[in-house]
Amino acid sequence: MQLDSDLLAKLYATAEDDARWMPVLDQLCRKLNAASAVVQLLEEGASSIDTLWAARDTFSSANALEHDRWVNNADNPRLGKPLVALPGGMASAMMIGSDIRLFADYPAILSQVRERIGRAGLGQAFWASFTLSPEWRFSLILHRKAGDYSDLSEAEENTLRELLPHLEQSARLASSLRAKQSRVDVLEKTLEHVEIGMLLCSPSLEIIFANAMAAELIARSPALACSGNRLAARDTADHARLSALVKAAAAGEGGSIIDTIDPLGECPVHLRAVGSFDRHGKRIVSLYISGPAHPVAPDPSEIARLFNLTPAEARLTAAIGAGRTVAEYAEEAGVTVGTARNQLKQVLSKTCTGRQADLVRVLSGSILSRTRTRAN
User: Fold this and answer.
1) What is the CA radius of gyration of the chain?
2) pLDDT of 226-259, one tens digit each?
3) All structural domains of the chain
4) Which residues pair with 275 in a beta bridge?
């Protein structure tokens, strides 16, 4: 039995989408005279084998509760201590196997296994597996129809041997893609804490990615807009400036370029554009956005921790950092101006600054002005 190109194409497509496993496994069941097929990522411990991930064929999905009850759990000798201790068990380098071969010298265990798979409405199990790492093993395990305990035929075994290198390659591709996607997810979550708008766009202003601050700045800016996933300036002249800025950065003219959108408006937007290439060699632009009219308002509890201030001193510092005067803070806090000034003296002393302007400079230069706490 030879593998056809359609099956292999579907198999490699699973690297990008786990949902594509079901038609692949259904096709393998028909090809190998099996009732069910499951692929699993197994973690081999000192005393057991645990399933970290699995995908099922249509039949196994429909009967998942019964299969999990009798087969896919730690009580199954294939996944428990008795199996691991057996010579040639799943913890070995064996690539093709079956219950009959594995338990040939252990009839009592074979009988126990057959009783369990029979209760699950399944027959003889056979598999192909390989190691992905010292701890992880990838396994394709198939079961024949209930009552059928025939071993692998020569043709079926040859099919599994032909399938193994493709199965291994697709699994390693999936593992690599998941690792890369995980890094992307972590990076995107990290950028949500940066106190500056950051987005990636094409030379034609199509937005590829935007962090929360960029979305916030665009939403509140009277000068910018997002239309059909494209960045735009509301004014025709501003849009021409924005488009020219991005295209120049994409072309690599000067590396990093700055400009202002709506420079004469009440809320001008400052931009820095840096040209680069994506992994496919296409030009993209990193666009950094800030709204200078938007004051930084750090969390008083974080100010207190960073500068060793009391809660009252931290609240005053946060107010000054947000642009309010001592008198305005005193009125809001319900204290006298004299009390607020005494607190300010303590703050200036603890932050080694001599005046409010220096305090604002220190606060603006701290980690508090560059990052923010966001709920996940």
Assistant:
1) 32
2) 988 999 999 999 999 999 999 999 988 556 888 8
3) 5-183 (3.30.450.80), 194-290 (3.30.450.20), 300-369 (1.10.10.10)
4) 285
